[in-house]
Amino acid sequence: MEPVRKIIHIDMDAFYASVEQRDNPELRGKPVAVGGSRQRGVVAAASYEARKFGVRSAMPSVTASRKCPGLIFIKPRFDAYRQVSEQIQSIFHEYTDLVEPLSLDEAFLDVTFHKKGKPSATLIAREIKQRIKDEVNLTASAGVSCNKFLAKIASDYRKPDGIFVIPPEEAEAFVEKLEIDKFFGVGKVTASRFHEMGIHFGRDLKKLERTELIRSFGKAGSYYYDIARGIDNRPVNPNRERKSIGGERTFSQDLYDAQELKHELEIIAEIVWNRVKKKQAMGKTITLKVKYADFEQITRSHTFSGNVIGMEQLYRTGVDLLPYYEAAQKGVRLLGLTLSNLTLPGEGTPVQLTLEF
């Protein structure tokens, strides 16, 4: 019989904003938004002081400014955030090799079999949190349970700087009382569909048969059936595949002119291609992202039969995908390019580069 897994989810508290407050004492205790400006852009992260006013990540900066007139906008420093993230990841790896980063500021750790002599996952989580505080001067929240779904949910329960444990014997009862909107893996659209079906809590979801859920939600239906019972057999994957490499720019003024848009696309394509080369990646699908002045957002993609072979191909495809008429009518506030359908070093077999005709 396999042992019950011990999974920890570590989630840094307001990570980008906390790094800025750590590095600049004048920002401590003040409402800070990373990203955007008072008139333009989108908030990438908000400090807890800003969150008290209702400021949230992905919120338009204009809305954030209205909610919090004293909000301080800071330009992101992603190189600094990556460096801090690497420090934190190195702490994780002292306890287990089974570390699955979800982003710069959160990760799953499987400590069922670990490198330290601690008798419990809870003690390991406490020690990791303390080490992050002592060595990196930041706080983290931790969730501890028997699978990824429960550990992820648990890490939100005592934020900031908290820890919450869901023992295996309490998992099913815990999920029964959980609001469907708080289920990890259930987004706003799916939650709305559940509400329309009269499903508001885990106990409601648990009443549906697997076949009924699959019929309504496809393959995801089987996942919903299991998590309604506190079951999640997904392993912590230390070699989690990176799905895409991209970049985007938000403009200080809306762009309408085709030549200006092409110029910006060329800059973005160069940035993205440098990231692709750094990762030694290959990819077949190029996606253009456009956000108009009215905040409507569209994406257009093209998949090649072979791998994209250079920055020029990335740029030209973006140019071809750009909806010029709509851009001239509405104005563009953001452009982005992404390369996906990736192959990373060591994956698959060598491929012959081909040109599209």
From TrEMBL:
It is an enzyme of class 2 (transferase). It catalyses: DNA(n) + a 2'-deoxyribonucleoside 5'-triphosphate = DNA(n+1) + diphosphate. Gene3D superfamilies: 3.30.70.270, 3.40.1170.60, 5' to 3' exonuclease, C-terminal subdomain, DNA polymerase, Y-family, little finger domain. One of its GO terms (molecular function) is magnesium ion binding. Residues 7-187 form the UmuC domain. GO terms for cellular component: cytosol. Mg(2+) binds at residues 11, 105. It is found in: Cytoplasm. Its main location: cytoplasm. Its EC number is 2.7.7.7. The keyword Zinc-finger does not apply. Pfam families: IMS, IMS_C, IMS_HHH_1. Keywords: Cytoplasm, DNA damage, DNA repair, DNA replication, DNA-binding, DNA-directed DNA polymerase, Magnesium, Metal-binding, Mutator protein, Nucleotidyltransferase, Transferase. GO terms for biological process: DNA repair; DNA-templated DNA replication; error-prone translesion synthesis; SOS response. Binds 2 magnesium ions per subunit. InterPro entries: DNA/RNA_pol_sf (IPR043502), DNA_pol_Y-fam_lit_finger_sf (IPR036775), DNA_pol_Y-fam_little_finger (IPR017961), DNA_polymerase-Y (IPR050116), DNApol_IV (IPR022880), IMS_HHH_1 (IPR053848), Rev_trsase/Diguanyl_cyclase (IPR043128), UmuC (IPR001126). The active site is at residue 106. It comes from the Bacteria. Poorly processive, error-prone DNA polymerase involved in untargeted mutagenesis. Copies undamaged DNA at stalled replication forks, which arise in vivo from mismatched or misaligned primer ends. These misaligned primers can be extended by PolIV. Exhibits no 3'-5' exonuclease (proofreading) activity. May be involved in translesional synthesis, in conjunction with the beta clamp from PolIII. Monomer. Belongs to the DNA polymerase type-Y family. This is DNA polymerase IV. It comes from Prolixibacter bellariivorans. The lineage of its organism: Bacteria, Pseudomonadati, Bacteroidota, Bacteroidia, Marinilabiliales.
